[in-house]
Amino acid sequence: MDFAGKKIKYIDKETGEIILKDFFVSILPCSGYTFGMATENM
Contact, 30 vs 23, CB < 8 A? Predict the structure, then answer.
């Protein structure tokens, strides 16, 4: 479990604002699936 590299960014279509998010990545132990989620901050 860790936060991956650089922040990801996207543009809010309504306001045109560029938003930066940290990206959390983990491997789920029993299934071996990868889980990822953009978060407001670490």
Answer: no
